[in-house]
Amino acid sequence: MKLENVILANEPGGARWDLEVSDGVLQSKGATNAAPDAPSSLLLPPLCHPHVHLDKPYILTCNHGLSAHHPDYTDLAPRSGSFDEALSNTSKAKERYTAQDVYLRGSQFVATSYQQGVTSMRAFVEVDHVTGTLPLQAVIRLKQDFSHLVQLQICAFAQDPVFSTGHGQENRSILEKALRDYGSDIEALGSTPYVESSQEDSIRNIDWAIRTALEHHVHLDFHLDYNLDSSAAFLVEPVIRLLTEHQWTRRADKSKTIVIGHCSHLSTLPAQKMLDIADGIRQQDLAVHFVGLPTSDLFMMGRPTDEQTAPHSRPRGTLQVPSMIRDVGLAACLGVNNVGNAFTPYGTGDPLQLACWGVGLYQAGTVDDAELLFSCVSSRAREAIGLSNTGYGGGMEKGTAWRPMLLVENTKTMRVPPRPGCPEVPIPARQRVSIKDVVWDPPESSLRSVVSCAHACQTNR
User: Fold this and answer.
1) H or E stretch including 214?
2) InterPro entries in the record, alphabetically (predicted)?
3) What is the mean pLDDT of the chain?
4) 96 shares its domain with 211
5) Is the pTM of this model over 0.85?
């Protein structure tokens, strides 16, 4: 394919290039021959979902009516919007799953994500006594069917307890069997220690997850400390301690990471405590990455209780991702978590939209902030799930292996319907020439496309 008159966002100076790619290699790179006033396209690293639940998208906007294989979930729409309600309604939804339903909703999400510029994702799939491996088998099909477009990393996930309650042991056994039977398609193990009935069982959950991940040579991913209660048990420290005791750094493959998602409890801690946590992670040389999930966290956290008398002063809790990176030195990124279900009943799941929201959420409005927020849904997100960023940076020269990238296309003018009886007046279009100029567009927009050597350039324009 040929890309003409493109700006490489990671190269300084705003130079414009003509690129030619064949056989997966950059064959030529030279100054563009385009006219000086011709609109340039902006070539960016692709986007990444580091944390999505691929068995649960679009439950609230489901495909019921297509056939008997697609259940109706409309009675499970949020009423209070609470976390407990979301857990309960999602458990009821899982009882209605069919293989066709999970595959269709998942394929709709993966296809939408690809259109938005996503080329990699970590997909959580619940495996327990309710679903068995039905969702897992459907997502394995998705992984195969979209393998030419999206690098889909499956995380076998224990949303429900694996030690406490009457189904704990059964849940654990089913998940362990899934790791044995489908291990070649599973890249990560995830669990939710805070759903256990006691602090003791939460610690057992963490210990089991670490041991099992090491046994099966997979990444480790925790949903952790999802609260804003400064007096509640804090599980990040036991995770670090148990990783150290199990000698994760020595025993795990160097490419395997430990991801901690949500963890809104961290937003209640004083600065020194955060620095202590970061020091503990660095001292043990642990590949720990935190994933902030603002779209879910802000919907769930800080809800008023019956005893609360001043709800207008309630906190809005999510990880302070830019500060964690810059001030504390932790590895962190951003993810969308859920789309169209009781945990996040809104949004399209667009990572660029999430990065743009971060400008206001984190009061991050500088050029450097824009580049950091973009990295949080791109390179930092890829690093969190253990993927390489080689080939996406600046300095691409002839002979460089070509990787799928995100093309933001500029036009010379905008056109709107004229007033009746008046001639059309073209409006000069704003040109997007760097990351700070990239804003969110609706998914139906033609301005974004994922460019890969597997597709002719004309197909993407």
Assistant:
1) helix 199-216
2) Metal_Hydrolase (IPR032466), Metallo-hydrolase_Enzymes (IPR052349)
3) 91
4) yes
5) yes
